[in-house]
Amino acid sequence: MGAMISLPWRTSFGIDPFTSFTLAILLLFIGKGLTQRYGWLRRYNIPEAVVGGVLCALVACGLYYVFDVRVVFDLGARDMLLLYFFAAIGMGTDVRTLREGGKPLVVLLVLASVFMLLQNGLGMAVAEAFGMDPRAGLMAGSISLTGGVGTTLAWTPHFVQTLGIPNAGELGLAANMLGMIAACLVGGPMAAWLMRRHRIVSSGAADVEVGTRYQDEPHLRLDYHGVLLALLWLNLALMLGHGVNELVALSGLNLPAFVGCLMAGISLRSAGQWLAPSGGRLWNWSSMRLGVALISDISLGLFLTMALMGLRLWELEPVLGFIATTMALQVALAVAFTAFVVFRFMGRDYEAAVICSGFGGIALGSTATAIANMSAVVRAYGAAPKAFIVVPLVCGFFIDLINALVIGLLAR
């Protein structure tokens, strides 16, 4: 009598792409409203997109367990939003600043590489303790956490068919789900704690082009021509980025699609400044700067909202024990490494604190969560231009190359 009756119409409920996209906009508004209402969310620099996206994922999980309704969102627009965001990051990058960030880039890359080895060692040790194939722990290591969903899906066939680990995909996706949430929750508070502990003064620079909520800045003016120019050049960056990715793929390397868009954006900004240093009709950075930043900010917020609202938390149940133990240890390792190693080697200053807020995205989540964390921090404390160059390049380009080599050596 007490058993739940599963009616046909209650088994699955699909949300079409347009409705899912519209819901993401609404959730971003909800997240913004809750952040404004509850001071502790602002105090710990929790991104607004995280609040709305996680709330939706929790509601979907409750519907699954209480009413036997499986809500599935069609998130077709999500990946395109990420491409727009990174094209805008590239266009907002001056190569002169990129050269200035050379040493921090190398240092952070070395630190991230060392952390990947620790991350994989921990995952394999926990898997062996649970009586599993130690290599299964790689799916809760750098494959899913540093690599993200794309790397997880790319390596799953090898683990299932070659290594004989049938639930490798579920392990990786579950770890990625929890890692993404953890990365969003620890990044902002980590930066705030470091600034308090070391008595760091913020930059005080108000010119935050990436990660600024321009709807909160009514004194800034956008004009039709500037926004139209921004859309034109961002679309050209996406087209050029696709070509870059195709060329890279010919070499046998598989990199995330946004890497090409980031490189294309940097190239177009450099070419535009060289061809029209004082501005022109089709290239005028001073006119379109705010438009690029606005599109970047909206794209990031909606991407992260959609990524989190699409999490199917109920899929964690079959591997809950292993995943819960592994992820608790992985989060503790990431926090300790960030606070006591990354912060020290990155300079112990404000830029280092902002980079530390993004390191959770490198270590546990994704490049988008890293940038969202840093965006929340710079909105509160001021601009950190080097952080927004170094972290995306480490996350989206170099680290994927090293991760592929590390996984290839361990997953034999």
SSE map:
Blueprint: E1 13-15, H1 17-37, H2 39-43, H3 48-67, E2 71-73, H4 78-91, H5 95-100, H6 102-129, H7 148-162, H8 168-197, H9 224-250, H10 257-275, H11 285-309, H12 320-345, H13 350-363, H14 367-381, H15 385-410
Parallel strand pairs: 1-2
Membrane topology: Multi-pass membrane protein
Protein name: Sodium/glutamate symporter
Transmembrane segments: 12-34, 46-67, 79-98, 105-127, 173-194, 247-269, 290-314, 320-343, 355-381, 387-411
Describe this structure in words.
Belongs to the glutamate:Na(+) symporter (ESS) (TC 2.A.27) family. Keywords: Amino-acid transport, Cell inner membrane, Cell membrane, Ion transport, Membrane, Sodium, Sodium transport, Symport, Transmembrane, Transmembrane helix, Transport. There is one protein chain. It is built from 15 helices and 2 strands. It has a two-stranded parallel sheet with strand order 1-2. The chain has a domain at 78-214 and 290-410. The N and C termini lie far apart (51 Å). The chain is globular, with a radius of gyration of 21 Å. The protein has 412 residues and is mainly alpha-helical.
